[in-house]
From TrEMBL:
The chain crosses the membrane at residues 29-53, 88-113, 125-145, 165-187, 216-234, 283-303. It is a multi-pass membrane protein. SUPFAM superfamilies: MetI-like. It comes from Streptomyces filamentosus NRRL 15998. This is Phosphate transport system permease protein. The keyword Cell membrane applies. One of its GO terms (biological process) is phosphate ion transport. The lineage of its organism: Bacteria, Bacillati, Actinomycetota, Actinomycetes, Kitasatosporales. GO terms for molecular function: phosphate transmembrane transporter activity. CDD domains: TM_PBP2. Belongs to the binding-protein-dependent transport system permease family. CysTW subfamily. It is found in: Cell membrane; Membrane. Its main location: membrane.
């Protein structure tokens, strides 16, 4: 035994023959590049915080924070100025909710079909076609909502005056179509990662394909599905051009989706390209609204991380 080991060491030319004879510098370079790539997102987040805090701090030194959070009138560019941000928050949440009502059932339905029902040939055709929707510029979606969806809604609306020219319903509907590929693609990847043995076991017990999809695959892939939905929500919260074109530019605290509304991102876009003097209170409202939007998305992502960790399933 010892002679055999000695002969192997001699053949290797080194007492540590199990170690690499030469260092692999390529792997070290790749590792450094991967670390640098991961640091980009962290540094970007830190940069965003650094850019938002000083102007937002100056704004809140002039405007009461309670008035900003609880006020129902948003008119920062008028005299007397009013800084109640609730109309912008309400418009953002209204459009996002409508988008989710469209995107979540359709996106998850598409994911279930591609993962559990479609054969490989159909999947290779339909999944790229579905993901094409994610590559369409959002300004195109905005004009589509304004010139196509809104007239159709006004024509088919059964009672009353119907939607206004600018309305949250058309903007939310088209935004939901836009984020369908995000939810469908990520959810389908998560469902496809569920081990085949779970499906075979359920089929062996006499389960139908629908039962396997909804009672086996869906719960097993729940963490990935939650992550897909949260990413879709983040995309909806941060969308600008669709709501700027189709939802209107008038702050409106209303629960009626047929009316025009202004979202937080639409206000930032409109105020950012205006002629506000740098350093003025009106200019600093951009950073205050941006900071609030950043906090909202941060809280939502922290909650989603907890949900993902709670429902994560690990298979060997």
């Amino acid at each position: 035994m010892s002679s055999t080991l000695s002969s192997r060491r001699a053949a290797s030319g080194s007492p540590g023959f199990l170690k690499r004879s030469q260092p692999r510098y390529g792997e070290k370079v790749i590792k450094v590049l991967l670390v640098a790539a991961s640091l980009v997102s962290v540094l970007t987040t830190i940069g965003i915080v650094i850019a938002l805090i000083p102007p937002a701090g100056e704004f809140f030194s002039k405007v009461d924070f309670g008035e900003f959070i609880t006020g129902t009138n948003w008119a920062p560019l008028f005299k007397p100025a009013s800084f109640g941000v609730l109309p912008l928050v309400g418009g953002t949440l209204m459009v996002t909710l409508i988008a989710l009502l469209v995107a979540v059932p359709l996106g998850l339905g598409a994911a279930v079909y591609l993962s559990e029902y479609a054969n490989k040939r159909v999947r290779k055709i339909f999944k790229p076609l579905l993901e094409v929707l994610a590559g369409i510029p959002t300004v195109v979606y905005g004009f589509f909502a304004l010139k196509a969806i809104t007239p159709v809604l006004q024509t088919i609306w059964p009672a009353g005056d119907g939607p206004q020219i600018f309305n949250a319903l058309a903007a939310g509907f088209v935004m939901g179509i836009m984020i369908i590929p995000t939810i469908a693609s990520l959810a389908e990847d998560s469902m496809s990662a569920v081990p085949r043995a779970l499906r075979d076991g359920a089929f062996a017990l006499g389960s139908s394909r629908m039962q396997v999809s909804t009672r086996v695959v869906f719960p097993a892939a729940l963490s990935g599905i939650v992550a897909a939905v949260v990413l879709g929500i983040s995309r909806a919260l941060g969308e600008t051009m669709i709501v700027a074109i189709a939802a209107g530019g008038q702050p409106n605290l209303s629960f009626n989706p047929l009316e025009g509304m202004q979202t937080m991102t639409a206000f930032i876009a409109a105020a950012g390209i205006g002629d506000l003097p740098t350093g003025s209170t009106g200019y600093q409202t951009i950073f205050a609204v941006g900071a609030l939007l950043f906090v909202m998305t941060l809280v939502m992502n922290l909650l989603s991380i907890r949900l993902v960790r709670k429902y994560r399933e690990v298979y060997e």
